[in-house]
Prior knowledge:
The chain contains 6 helices and 6 strands; from the N terminus they run E-E-H-H-E-E-H-E-H-E-H-H. By secondary structure, the chain is an alpha/beta fold. Keywords: Hydrolase.
Amino acid sequence: MNTGKRTPPIPQLNGRVIKENEFNRAVVRYLDDELKRCGFKTLLVAPTDNDTPLATRTGLANKKRADLYVSCHYNAGGGEVIETYHYKGSSAGRRAAELIHKHVKTAVPRKDRGIKTANFFVLRETRMPAVLIEYGFMDDPGLEEAAQMIDPKVQKAFAVAV
């Protein structure tokens, strides 16, 4: 599991600066707990708040022969959607994206941009199926998604959905 790259803080919500990484890390913690509870072995490829290079993240997943790579993100750029990515040509990645997206999009209702392909490093450089989830936009108009992203109930709902 990957917590996504650290991005600079974007919005302020009631005077509080929100950082993407605090959401990503919380979702991955909840996801880690859920998977272990179900008997899965897990691997955190970016276990600290330091911005671990992408090559280190994918290299560790490849070295440990992970079965699935899941990267958790919150987007920026003024949208209001959820979307799930996989690497073009990876049928196993597409299937994983379909299964995950089906549940994530209903965990916390918002506009759905669906499943897409992308040439993102973490999707391209892994030897296992890989999925990158954008749970929403941290700078959405009105900052409703930003407020949700710091709510532990929302974080856990997304983790359980995955």
